[in-house]
Amino acid sequence: MNDQKKFKKPFKEKKKASKKVAPYQSKKDQKWYFASCPTGMEELIQEELKEYGASGFQEFTGGIRFQAKSWNLVEFILNTRLASRVFQEIHQYKFFNDEDHFSMAKDKWWHHIFELNQTFKISTLFDKDASKFFKNSMVQSLRLKDAIVDSFRENVGARPNISKDSPDISILQRIEGIEGQKGWYNRIYLDLCGNPLSNRGYRPRGHEAPLRENLAAAMIQSSDWNSQEDIFIDPMCGSGTLLIEALYQAAKLPGSWLKLNALSSGSTVYDFQNHLWFRKENLDQKLIDYANFLLKEGQARVDELPAGQFFGNDLSDKSLNIARSSLRYALFPDDLVELTQGDATKLMPFEEAPGIVMTNPPYGERIGQETDLVALYHDLGENFKANYKGYRCYLLTSEPELRKAISLQTSMRKVFFNGGIECRMLKYEIR
């Protein structure tokens, strides 16, 4: 055991963290952005955006359109635990045919968006109507590429190069049908992130867990877990994603926690650092200072986390080894989470209530036979009923038959999409 504090209930109130670095006030008008997220998390991400001065919210399936000042946007990207990506809107227009598409795209002064010596890449998305009509997204990407290249040639006398693998600038165009009208609407964005923000960096290389980090964070935020009073148990913890995201929330760590050292040394981590607007507003040093601030504050809160509050269990020794590796990669002390190997349907609570149980049981091919899954869910519910008095238990699952196998009354149901699978987060209050 290291010098880690032991968790005691009720948890003593921690000292208030020092105030945030005062936000940089851009003289420019607010710009429009779009933050994408798994479906079902839109309201949560809107609340998160409000903390960083965003406004003008428009909710869409899978994301929020909003306005923000440049520095507030940077703060959000570094701190969010919910967003998958963030895009800046740079151009939009209606077109009827290929010639319109080309001419309207070319009309943009692209050399004010990025420089001649920077490489770029284009991705194209269609809505349902556009996908039926256009079929091939590559053709529309090439159309936009030709317009950008011609615009550069006319304005600066040369063209920038394409890079499919490691571009300086990633451009996304989304082509949509217009209800009740002819023609198409094109929205063009700059990807501000590069890699998805949900890729925290704590998963061992080559490992793909069934639960994305930002969905795990959303589950925890949607629960009534009180990190100062409640213990946290995941009886089928797998590679430990829910446990680690609970630690992130308890220590109030930014989603960029494992990227802060690189940012504080001046390294390029996010695509927005390559963008002209970022350079013109001279935000490089501001970003370095802010990364150092987040590092210092975050480490102080990690050091205050007590042992004896976080518990994980899994039947698979391989999964537990991955969980241990993930916890180390996330820079948490070895004795902060207690991991055990055993059957979740027979697992006894590690501590007395109050506390929550939160887990993502298998609901697909991970076990195989539907009868096995029904039995698993039934036995899990019976164990909760018999041994977890005073606990609140949360499960994420997809199949109605599996939900019915748990003979407990739900007190909350919330829809989330795990990839393309529609799931329900269910809450059971064990009395």
Describe the structure.
With 431 residues, the protein is of the alpha/beta class. The chain has a domain at 213-253 and 307-429: Rossmann fold, CATH 3.40.50.150. Helix content is 33%, strand content 23%. The protein has helices at 42-50, 70-79, 98-106, 128-134, 137-156, 213-222, 241-250, 260-264, 276-280, 284-304, 317-329, 370-387, 400-405, and strands spanning 5-6, 31-36, 55-60, 63-68, 85-95, 120-126, 169-177, 184-191, 231-234, 306-307, 310-314, 337-341, 355-359, 391-397, 410-418, 421-429. A seven-stranded mixed beta sheet has the order 3-4-2-5-8-7-6. Strands 12-11-9-13-14-16-15 form a seven-stranded mixed beta sheet. Strand 11, helix 11 and strand 12 form a beta-alpha-beta unit. Helix 3 packs parallel to helix 5 (137-156) and helix 6 packs across helix 7. The chain is globular, with a radius of gyration of 24 Å. It starts with a strand and ends with a strand.
